[in-house]
Please model this.
Amino acid sequence: MRMYDLIQKKQNGYALSEEELTFFVKGVTDGSIPDYQISALLMAIFFKGLTEEETTVFTECLVDSGERADLSAIKGKKVDKHSTGGVGDKTSLIVAPMVAATNMGVYVAKMSGRGLGHTGGTIDKLESIPGVNTNQSREDFLRIVNEIGLCIGQSSCFAPADKKLYALRDVTATVNCLPLIASSVMSKKLAAGSDCIVLDVKCGSGAFVKTVKEATELADLMVKIGTRAGKKTVALITNMDVPLGRNVGNSLEVIEAIDVLDGQGDKDLTELCITLAANMLYIANAADYDECVRAVTKTLHDGSAKKKLADLVAALGGNSDYIYNPSLFKESKISAIIAADRSGYIYKMDTELIGVAAVVLGAGRMTKESPIDHRAGITFHHTVGDYVNEGEAIATIYTSNISKAQNGMELIFNAVKISDKKPEPKKLIYKTIGGKF
Model:
């Protein structure tokens, strides 16, 4: 079998067989296929696509390139939740403790990632708390889940072929390809070993997919892959035309997550977290959906979800005092206010540009090796639909030097559009595949 033939076959629009896809992923994993041929096939897939059958087989091949987690030592139902990536998306820090705090026999054994492009990563956010170490051994990870009902960690042993493929997609402009996105996400979720999967498929200017139609196609494909693999899988398609919540940046997002767990957080962020957490319980057959909503909402008002986050931080070696006293987080060296240049309604926010601004300020990585400034980021004082007066503060930025501040301010200023016309409100959750809202 030759890579030349696989590339040409896909260029001509034909489906690749299971044997050919297995050969390709094996060659990616062991390094026997050179990067230029891998990139050529990725580009052919970008233009010609993969059938549903090809995507499912390709996903399984990616899973088989590494280890599969054995979660049998964890009692009860295991549920995972994944977001396709957004700006200000700190939901994992909220929904995992909410689910664990209900004590309904549902456990969250979640593998998360670092920031990618203009989108933030749960691991980076957790590590903004001093002492937190997400590189737990397999034994410690399972022990923590059994003891407190949840754990968030990271693993490089899951779907290693996907890790190499993504690095090449990132530099060959082949990231935004639905079958490649679906296989990348689901290979890691299937390898992580949970019984049930809830997918939060982001849609809009700050997401990798921009339209509801495209997001629906992606969600439907991922649900089918999960279902065919024997995992109960549902997807929610949610709005990413505005940042989720008011804070963007690692320690800032942890602080906002704590606000939600105190029952005092941003309305949209709180609503989405309740819906995601309730669906996690619902697909695990913990109770009917309305009872699941009541159960997770209760955890925000009785302090139990907040305690679970503090327990997680302590179990990962961090200082849980930060959860009970967020003022312990150190402030950035430099802060600046961005003011409205005219009166009117905030009509639009280019959320991707805001995510880029957060990276420029230091909250994300310019390259794989770039360090993270956990204090850097943006706090928005207004959002789409709000009326602002000329000179009124729209946002505050936080960073470590003047040059970053100037560049970040310019990007945010260009991202926020003010108009005399009030925009039509958009839904927070557009639709669901298999879930409830």
Summary: The chain has three domains: 3-49, 77-324, 331-419. The chain has a mean pLDDT of 94.
